[in-house]
Task: inverse folding
């Protein structure tokens, strides 16, 4: 994992061109001075990819988000429920299995093309890929998107994330490891009751210990109307948390190696932020979003329409929100380094009724 990823670096070098626009093969987007603007995504759905690096390899998690017309895109396969014990002795409850759409595809094969990049084919015949992309001379100038991206993602290189050859986004991929380390799908969940912790003088272990002691936001799930109606969209949002990053720092003092010597020290700073909000609405519907929703009376962008009532649930549909908290650490203000993702599930219930019209014969005066 720590050796230079020479093959990938070479493929990037051979694909760099100098000009004002990239090849049309990458969709309708164009490089601008500070960011990359993608064109229309496949079939109106928005697909995104999340890169995770751990001691088992480099993982890319691909999933779709609901489109503007309310139709769900394909969702990723679920991970087994896991209860994660924290370093302070508390533990998080197991996450419920993700309720994917009935036709959610699974991966059937993966392959590596040394001249193009990484590919994965799903059971329904669609192909996801990470491929090298042309970079204009403007993009690498001071303050432009490649330069800024390299600062935000050290030791990484940009690749085009495509679905069926159509550009979805630009993903920064670690430039260490090798083709055998790269895997599609969710990274494996920690074994049950894994302690998130660490100590000693290893900055990474100290960062794990700091991460294990950080309190997560006390999120509450809200909805409007208070009692939902079948076929009427319900609005959902997150309360008691504004989405801001949070974290903590710790300074470690190392005693001198010889009597009379000077002690040394280093400071580890851990930063945590929400990377994604995964909603389960209790009726089989789900939504992956980067939005907290909007509190009433504003119209929330997190909505769900129920097709039947919650009659069989005593308190209403069980609504779960699993927040994926990404984390990183810095040593003495140096380059950010990744930490394990924390997944925590928040719960509530939502009663939904079905309104029925009653026809009555009008009374005569």
Result:
């Amino acid at each position: 994992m720590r050796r230079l990823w020479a093959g990938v670096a070479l493929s990037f070098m051979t694909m760099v061109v100098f000009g004002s626009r990239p090849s049309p093969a990458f969709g309708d987007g164009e490089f601008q001075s500070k960011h990359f603007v993608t064109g229309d995504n496949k079939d109106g759905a928005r697909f995104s990819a999340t890169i995770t690096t751990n001691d088992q390899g480099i993982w890319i998690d691909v999933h779709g988000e609901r489109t503007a017309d309310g139709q769900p895109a394909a969702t990723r396969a679920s991970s087994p429920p896991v209860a994660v014990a924290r370093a302070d002795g508390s533990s998080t409850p197991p996450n419920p299995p993700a309720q994917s759409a009935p036709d959610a595809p699974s991966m059937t094969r993966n392959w590596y093309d040394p001249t193009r990049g990484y590919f994965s084919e799903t059971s329904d015949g669609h192909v996801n890929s990470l491929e090298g992309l042309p970079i204009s001379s403007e993009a690498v100038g001071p303050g432009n998107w490649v330069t800024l991206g390299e600062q935000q993602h050290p030791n990484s290189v940009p690749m085009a994330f495509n679905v069926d050859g159509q550009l979805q986004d630009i993903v920064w991929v670690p430039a260490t490891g090798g083709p055998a380390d790269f895997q599609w799908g969710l990274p494996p969940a920690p074994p049950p009751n894994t302690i998130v912790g660490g100590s000693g003088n290893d900055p990474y272990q100290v960062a794990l210990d700091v991460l294990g002691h950080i309190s997560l936001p006390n999120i509450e799930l809200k909805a409007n109307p208070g009692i939902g109606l079948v076929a009427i969209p319900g609005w959902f949002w997150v309360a008691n948390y504004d989405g801001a990053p949070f974290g903590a720092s710790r300074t470690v003092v190392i005693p001198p190696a010889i009597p009379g010597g000077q002690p040394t020290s280093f400071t580890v700073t851990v930063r945590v932020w929400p990377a994604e909000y995964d909603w389960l609405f209790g009726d089989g519907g789900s939504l992956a979003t980067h939005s907290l929703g909007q509190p009433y009376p504003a119209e929330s962008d997190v909505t769900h329409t129920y097709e039947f009532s919650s009659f069989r649930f005593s308190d209403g549909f069980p609504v779960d929100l699993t927040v994926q908290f990404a984390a990183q650490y810095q040593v003495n203000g140096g380059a950010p380094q990744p930490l394990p993702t924390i997944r925590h599930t928040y719960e509530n219930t939502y009663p939904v009724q079905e309104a029925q019209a009653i026809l009555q014969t009008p009374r005569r005066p």
